[in-house]
From TrEMBL:
Its EC number is 2.1.2.11. The chain holds residues 55 to 333 of 343 of the full protein. It comes from Clohesyomyces aquaticus. This is 3-methyl-2-oxobutanoate hydroxymethyltransferase. Keywords: Methyltransferase, Pantothenate biosynthesis, Transferase. One of its GO terms (molecular function) is 3-methyl-2-oxobutanoate hydroxymethyltransferase activity.
Length: 279
């Protein structure tokens, strides 16, 4: 397929066709997402938890993001790639943010970057976009600020906070963001923001009135052990962990019983040659 560009995304938006986005954290997870025809692939800093086993996203380093971005970029032929700027790589000043964004493009090999925040990051977004790097904004629940938000909670539930969200959305749009992620926002608020903006909104826990949707791949595909907490907005479309568990258990059983490897899995040797060898 033809690689998705900023123009492809704008044309989907104009046609009111939902934009599909999913996270990937390595070569195989990007390969399958690209093969499925996702419009966008995000190397989210959620890889801290889903790929590196960390408690939260605040621990992941720029170098780790770059390594994973590169492996995702190698597998992605069609989708438009986005690299998440990790916490600490963009907050100090717009210059620091631009430096980090440039590393994402040059070393991470992604096509654009995402960063969290509203009004207060507008100068940062404008600095990065002025350098020709597309920026995906992210407002509402911003996990990098979970300590300040008091945990993972829905944003924009009161009139006042919905108004702040609208201000943030307009500010990141005016700063030049090509789209904005709305995370954990009431569906009505997200739909209204989508109407008021002239750039696409990508929802996660923000209802179906957005211009597109994003989910974390391991969540939506069920690639996690039973009992893990899933936010309300996640729909589990598969059970990859169970399938992987079944396959590995079957392998184990067949090795223990010597059912595997069977003759069809082995390299034959001509009988005459073997007789000679055996003597
Ligand atoms: O890190 C991530 O996966 C994200 C998406 C959930 C938007 O930021
Ligand atoms: Na993220």
């Amino acid at each position: 397929r033809k690689p998705v560009s900023i123009h492809t995304l704008q044309s989907l938006y104009r046609k009111n066709e939902p934009i599909t986005m999913i996270t990937a954290h390595d070569f195989p997870s990007a390969h399958v997402a690209d093969h499925a025809g996702m419009d966008m692939i995000l190397v989210g800093d959620s890889l801290a938890m889903v790929a590196l086993g960390m408690e939260d996203t605040s621990e992941v380093l720029m170098e780790e993001m770059l390594l994973h971005c590169r492996s995702v970029a190698r597998a992605t032929k069609g989708a438009f790639t986005v690299g998440d700027l990790p916490m600490g790589s963009y907050e100090i000043c717009p210059e620091q943010a631009l430096e980090s964004a440039i590393r994402m493009i040059k070393e991470g090999r992604v096509k654009s970057i995402k960063l969290e925040g509203g009004k207060e990051v507008a100068p940062t977004i404008s600095k990065i976009t002025t350098a020709g790097i597309p920026v995906l904004a992210h407002i509402g629940l911003t996990p990098q600020r979970q300590n300040a938000l008091g945990g993972f909670r829905v944003q924009g539930k009161s009139t006042a906070s919905a108004l702040r969200l609208l201000e943030d959305a307009l500010a990141v749009q005016d700063a030049g963001a090509f789209a904005v992620v709305l995370e954990a926002v009431p569906a009505e608020v997200a739909a209204l923001l989508t109407q008021k903006l002239s750039i696409p909104t990508i929802g996660i826990g923000a209802g179906n009135g957005c211009s597109g949707q994003v989910l974390v791949q391991v969540d939506m595909s069920g690639y996690f052990p039973p009992g893990r907490f899933l936010p309300k907005f996640v729909k589990q479309f598969g059970n990859v962990w169970a399938e992987s568990l079944r396959a590995i258990q079957d392998y184990k059983t067949e090795v223990k019983s010597r059912a595997y490897p069977a003759p069809e899995h082995t390299y034959p040797m001509p009988q005459a040659e073997f007789s000679e060898f055996e003597r």
